[in-house]
Amino acid sequence: MAGGGDSLHALLRAANALLQKRRYHAALAVIKGFRNGAVYGAKIRAPHALVMTFLFKSGSLREKLKSIAQATYAHSRNLAYFVFTYKGLLAAQSRLQGKKIPFHSFLAACIGGWLVFGDNNPINSQIIMYLLSRILFGLSRLAVEKGYIPQPKQDPFPLVAALVWGTVLWLFEYHKETLQPSLQSSMTYLYEDSEVWHDLSDFLIYNKRTDSK
């Protein structure tokens, strides 16, 4: 038993020594990036899928749990693959050119995005839309920072909020099919289901009456 414990300690020491070697840093960063992508994807998707599934999807408990597991796995896998691809390509470009330049990041992410997130499915669609909104905010701030557009005299956020809500409700009312299914479900619950009731039970307690009255 003692010999087994000593072997394990020796293996751990060797592994820790390897992790400290600078020449392996890029390769090890790719591996840890894969790990972090998988963990972060699961942490983000699991609670979201849990809430959305039990709020808006019908079916048995087993079907709902299966849907949650599939969504969580897909998000976790895709994020892990993307981080692995991105960091691997970034390290390869830096090694080939002898230094890291900003274009390396853009090119590596473009290739990773094409390979990993290029399939148009609900999970990828949600991730891309999440990123797109933040990109627009980030580019706007960068444009002001670099002097491409003047610094606003007043906070533009109220105007942005008004335009976003005005546009999305107009689309929902008149071009609903252009919106993502999960957004359609949320807005149907808020703006259409609130127009229908039969008695106090489905006015205050339930959203929709399930009996045959």
Automatic annotation (TrEMBL):
Domain of life: Eukaryota
Pfam families: Tim17
Gene Ontology CC annotation, any one: peroxisomal membrane
Protein name per Swiss-Prot or TrEMBL: PXMP4 protein
Protein source organism: Erpornis zantholeuca
Gene from which the chain derives: Pxmp4
